[in-house]
């Protein structure tokens, strides 16, 4: 088959496929080895492959394909909402504490995983569009709860700028913020910190 035919299979999956996607199309996995050898395809991690387009595949596609259960959080969420102008060095992603950690070993794109308890994963979950693709992310109010929860692990400047940006944001929802804070046992801290700015 011509290279265009293999590329079409990847095109159908936004440039990233699972090995099972490829074999369902009737191709043997040795074809992938050949495509990798010729530089058309790159292996992302075991069982996942990316076509090497002139323009790289969006991180949003790779994250969505490899970790559909993951939720963008903390500094990556701050960046998506414009609460920080620092591009995070890695994608910050929340996943269930019950998942096998070895599943999340990946070199590219760089990712930092937060293993959190299941009931916290549902609080403030939403989606945003990034580079034309949908990504699961915690909403603004939940993100600020996380920022306050992890204050000691965050850069002070990023922390302060995020709080100020949130307070000025017309899309914030203080009722949601307090509701989430209660569920996450940080209501006092949220009221004390955000109260200073309102």
Written account of the structure:
This protein is α+β, with helices and mostly antiparallel strands and 198 residues long. The protein folds into 2 domains: 3-57; 67-197, no CATH class. Helices cover 44% and strands 19% of the residues. The chain is built from 10 helices and 8 strands. Strands 1-3-2 form a 3-stranded antiparallel β-sheet. A hairpin with a 2-residue loop joins strand 7 (125-130) and strand 8 (133-138). Helix 7 packs across helix 9 (174-183) and helix 9 runs antiparallel to helix 10. The protein is elongated. The relative contact order is 0.11.
Largest sheet: 3 strands, antiparallel
Helical amount: 40-55%
Q: Give a count of the beta strands, DSSP E runs of length 2 or more.
A: 8
H/E series, N to C?
HEHHEEHEHEEHEEHHHH
Rg, please? 20 Å
> What is the number of domains?
2
Shape: elongated
Q: Which structural class matches the secondary elements? A: alpha+beta
Strands of the widest sheet, in order across it, are 1-3-2
SS summary, helix count: 10
Poorly predicted tracts of residues: none
Beta-strand level of the residues, as a percent range? 15-25%
How much is the average pLDDT?
Answer: 85
Q: Tell me the distance between the termini.
A: 64 Å
């Amino acid at each position: 088959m011509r290279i265009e035919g293999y590329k079409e299979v990847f095109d159908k999956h936004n440039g990233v496929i699972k090995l099972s996607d490829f074999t369902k199309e009737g191709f043997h996995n040795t074809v992938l080895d050949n495509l990798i050898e010729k530089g058309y395809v790159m292996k992302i991690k075991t069982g996942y492959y990316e076509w090497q387009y002139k323009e790289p595949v969006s991180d949003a596609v790779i994250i969505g394909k490899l970790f559909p259960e993951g939720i963008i959080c903390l500094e990556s969420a701050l960046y998506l909402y414009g609460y920080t102008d620092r591009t995070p060095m890695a994608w910050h992603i929340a996943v269930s504490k019950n998942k096998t950690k070895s599943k999340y070993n990946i070199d590219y794109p760089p990712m930092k995983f937060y293993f959190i308890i299941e009931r916290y994963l549902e609080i403030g979950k939403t989606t945003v569009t990034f580079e034309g693709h949908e990504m699961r992310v915690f909403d603004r109010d939940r993100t600020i709860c996380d920022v306050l929860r992890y204050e000691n692990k965050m850069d002070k400047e990023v922390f302060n700028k995020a709080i100020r940006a949130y307070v000025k944001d017309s899309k914030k929802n203080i009722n949601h913020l307090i509701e989430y804070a209660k569920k996450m046992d940080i209501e006092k801290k949220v009221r004390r910190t955000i109260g200073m700015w309102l």
